[in-house]
Amino acid sequence: MESQNKEVDALVQKITGLHAAISKLPSLSPCPDVNALFTDLVTACVPASPVDVTKLGPEAQKMREGLIRLCSEAEGKLEAHYSDMLAAFDNPLDHLGIFPYYSNYINLSKLEYELLARYVPGGIAPARVAFIGSGPLPFSSFVLAARHLPDTVFDNYDLCGVANERASKLFRADTEVGARMSFHTADVADLAGELGAYDVVFLAALVGMAAEEKAKVIAHLGAHMADGAALVVRSAHGARGFLYPIVDPEDIGRGGFEVLAVCHPDDDVVNSVIIARKSNDDVHADGLQNRRGQHARRTVPVVSPPCRFGEMVADVTHKREEFAKAEVAF
């Protein structure tokens, strides 16, 4: 226990130092200094760790919340930068590999599809899918559409109209996947009847960054999604909770869903994945409880893929080298 405490203290100290350095940057747009600091941050957070970030003290929690927001801003700028680079090609979809983390999206989308196929009763063959928080690089929707769901229509939602304009340009030369992609500028809180049309809804990790914000979004989805529809929520676990918000499965249950599976990858896939299904209970309009004032409780299978630590470290090192060699436009 003492050794674990020392390990956690050392990690928190390192992350705090990186947060301080990132906070001092004049801009979070891609450049060598930004790339180096965020690569160091990911390298520190991805390996397995005994840290439970939800139990850190108030000062560390405040630092973590600020760091997640900085990560969100930097991720948005990185994706916008590469979306513009890709848009310069005649067929952008032929060059997605120039994005340093594209392979992570391939692996994450594969994991999500496999979890849906395994845990959603009756399997998964959705006619329509919604992705909430798709951003300027909708890699997840593309990978799912191109590799796993060849007959599915995808509606991508984002708050930012500019992000949607960037995303739509990537599909301009594609007559197959592009025909099944649409982009909508909207706040999830403003979606109601539309949500009832989807067989599966994906909720991006950075939609609702604070726990109460995330719970509110999930409750809204629970109030408007069709009974039996599947919900895929991206979360984080361990030290990866310094990069992305952690979603409590209990909040998903309180939102009107039955949690089917929780997966905490231990490889280069950073996000955890929670698979849930809209309950058939008599849910109140606020989506928070059933008629008994409680959500259903059940044992949730926690799926942990085999550890690939050596490959994970090699992948992070490879990403560092890619950034160092990349010709980044300032």
Give an overview of the whole structure:
The protein is an alpha/beta fold and 330 residues long. It is 42% helix and 13% strand. The protein has helices at 2-23, 32-45, 58-87, 102-119, 139-148, 161-169, 211-224, 249-254, 309-325; strands spanning 128-132, 153-158, 181-185, 200-203, 230-235, 257-263, 272-278, 302-303. The protein has an eight-stranded mixed β-sheet. Strand 4 (200-203), helix 7 (211-224) and strand 5 form a beta-alpha-beta unit. 40% of the residues are buried. Residues 283-293 and 306-314 have low confidence and may be disordered.
Strands, helices and their partners?
Elements: H1 2-23, H2 32-45, H3 58-87, H4 102-119, E1 128-132, H5 139-148, E2 153-158, H6 161-169, E3 181-185, E4 200-203, H7 211-224, E5 230-235, H8 249-254, E6 257-263, E7 272-278, E8 302-303, H9 309-325
Helix pairs in contact: 1-2, 1-3, 2-9, 3-6, 4-5
Short descriptors:
330 residues; alpha/beta
Give a concise summary.
This protein has 330 residues and is an alpha/beta fold.
Q: Give the total of beta strands.
A: 8
Q: Extract low-pLDDT stretches.
A: 283-293, 306-314
Total number of helices: 9
Helical content band: 40-55%
Quaternary organization: single chain
Binned strand content: 5-15%
Tell me the radius of gyration.
20 Å
- Going by helix content, strand content and strand pairing, the class is alpha/beta
Mean pLDDT: 88
